[in-house]
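Field: COMPLEX_INPUT
Field: COMPONENT_COUNT = two
Field: RESIDUE_TOTAL = 972
Field: MODE = joint
Values follow.
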Amino acid sequence: MIEPKQAANALELKDLSVAYRVGGRNRAVLRNVNLTIKAGEAYGLVGESGCGKSTVALSVVRYLPRNGSITGGSIALDGRDVMKLDAEALRRARADSVSMVYQDPGKALNPSLRIGRQLTEIFELAGVTGQAATDKATAMLNRVRISDPVSVMQRFPHQLSGGMQQRVAIAMALANDPSMLILDEPTTGLDATVEAEVLDLIGQLRRELSASILFISHNLAVVSNMCDRVGVLYAGMLVEEGSTKDVFNDPRHPYTVALLRCLPRGGQRKDQGRLDTIPGFLPGIGAAIAGCAFADRCALATERCRAEPPPLYDLGDGRLSRCHYHDKAQSLPRATPADVPAGAPKHAPPVLKVEGLNKTYASHGHPLRAVKDVSVSLRPGETLGLVGESGSGKTTFARLLLGLVPPDDGGSIELEGKKLAPRLASRSEDQVKAVQIVFQNPDSALNRSHSIRHILSRALKRLGGLTGKRLDTRLEELVRSVRLTDRHLAVKPRQLSGGLKQRVAIARAFAGDPRIVVCDEPTSALDVSVQAAILNLLADLQSKQDVSYIFISHDLGVVRYLSDKIAVLYLGRIMEFGPSEAVFSGPHHPYTEALLSAVPKLDRTESSRIRLDGEIPSAANPPTGCVFHTRCPRKIGAICETQEPELIEAQPGHTIRCHIPYAELARLQKPKVVEPA
Amino acid sequence: MSATDTPAGMPSAPDTAARRSPWGEVLHSLLRSGTFLTGLAIVLFWIACALFGEHFVPYDPLADDIINALSPPSAEHWFGTDQIGRDVFSRVIVGSRDILTVAPLATLLATIAGTALGLIIGYFRGIVDDVVSRVLEAFMAIPVVIVALLAIVALGTSKATVIVVIGLSFAPIIARTVRSAVLAERELDYVAAAKLRHEGAMHTMFVEILPNVIPPILVETTVRLGYAIFAVATLSFMGFGIQPPSPDWGLSISSNYGMIGGGFWWTVLFDALAIASLVIGVNLVADGVHGAFND
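Field: COMPLEX_OUTPUT
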């Protein structure tokens, strides 16, 4: 980190208020936000969806949507008042001194222009043309660690992976050598391994460049790794600010305290207690707020909180908290009791037994092995976590189980000792209702034309075989079991928030008393507080109904919380399979090691940094030998390139597909700092 | 701040917010669309004429009056009289009746047949889609007039024939629209969820998917109605559509257009303007509906 220069502040927001015009009324989105980013500083802005993070970013470049307007306050970039700039000066400011990187690089790049053209355009704007612009563009791509810039310049955006696209977007943002770089959720859509690379890149660039950074993210761990100072935004107000270390280790606002508690941290597991949640909802935009905006959701709130809006208390050391009781914030009682219904693992026979499952697609005439020789077993009440980058075959495996796609001939899936037909249509009614799914995106999974009552009744009728009075009784039970109420039944999905929609999807999966529920990234579209509630719900339902889960998630903390067993997939093959604790604590497969190392940690403990180079290879053309050898940081030699290792049982029930013997892996991975429990 | 966060940072609805339903929103934007309201006014005017016109017109539209034949527009006969002395104004007002029965029914038939066909080929895809789509394309390549001619030779002239001919000629176009909407819809997870309940194809197509493809169907239907009016008028003009003694516009033009040469323009102009205004009215409605669904 470079020392902040004694120059003007890079960004200064004074009493910034922004409103959106919705339904003919101006609704406040930002309320008197004050924040200062010093030159060379990285400032993180965190908070849940709808609290105004992106609005801050858009205000800074005066790029609010058409219905948005700045209703008060001032914005100064490098000491210049952005509000007073005329159109031309504003254009110059955007071209010269401030850059923005958005969440979805696929949308930020022009799909019909080659990368080279898009990059050189920026230099041409600054008056550099021809070969000089091309050279500068190449240099820029080198700077964002793109190894063959000349060939990348010739390509179109869709020919690059998500990580590469985001590097290009960052290169474009840095091209004008901005003094202020705004990163709005720059890694949110990326795989953990790619996210780690991009974050490393941003970290390195910070040391090379003088740019100040405004880093917006919902991921507290990412912000804690990237930023010097952090501000917590709630309902358009800054509720806490301070150095990253202080805010995350010693939060002084109940909202920050609650947010941090929602995350499954340090290897917490479902049998060690529920996750805490934040009750209630964010106030709607433009809502009139009498006292403290968080009072309705805060267990510490008193009459004073509801009546008197708390000022931003200065706690010294650059720390601010908008709470009357900031000294007591950490004594915030839990919103959800921590106790868990005891669900001791039973030694019942496996409910699911998969043997030698394969799936080959045809891709341009070549076989594409999406799933190769996968064997797993799962007992009642257990969760199998599926882990791996996108393209590793997790979702295909789930679809094979469900019967949505038929597997290749040969393998077998047994449910409670009976063979499952490969195709859904040939499975019996009982088998169909026994294996259900909670999809990732409830907007796609729930029919938007149907009411919640219709959706759930239909499921109860078809899966539960119920009609009339018995259906109504069961519907009421089902709705209550996912903590919805009767009044949710009459509405259509779009009238519910993301978390409530996902509860409906869970209720539907449970309508026919399933034995196995596939959860395909069920919380990836949700805020952390909602995610915690959904994870608690899944854990509760499991211990009550002895149902088994196949849990797919890219968030290893979430997988670890819920899973009893873990299968690590890479190019459709199981690289490691075993009890959750054994897989996470190691010794583990080098790929697992890399995945774990890529997870940003909230406590900033520098564990071994293993980064995977490049992207997952195409399954249509997998590497010879061990499929992981092209990216493996622990490759031992020619054997890795020629001979595919077997899945070897390293410990009872823990298998690893690697040429390196288990004892050697243990030795290699020993110096790694063990994650604090 | 989830992956679905909007740049505007708009919050998702907390709980069951009191918001307009999607249909309420469409209605709201329709009622604020000048295009739609203008079109609607024109169409409603002609519907009113069709329903109640005969009670208000000054003359019986079918009553001839040879003495006053071919008299130009005057205070007595606003739009003049035709070659056997019938009052053109009365005939234009009442002349909307047949076309406003035949064209909407033909469009309705096209919509029902096209929707069913589109759902089936979009849902099953594969060989069903390949075969049926090719047949539909071949069918669309034949001009309506030729089909009508053949049908009328085979079935004889009647309103029912016209409805069936136009309805079946337009069905493939609607089927194509529905098919492309269904192709997008069937990839959504709620269709997979229906499969995981062992729902039959009929349920999945008509209960799960159909309600979600209504908007494009509505837009296509209103557009088709404009074409249907034009097609009915054309067929009547050619003598294959609505038959005498109906005061139908196309038919009137057909029996009077020989008069234009003699300077008796009023026998044709007002009927032509009537057809044009109705088609424009329907097209304005279609534009408005399209805009309301695609805002």
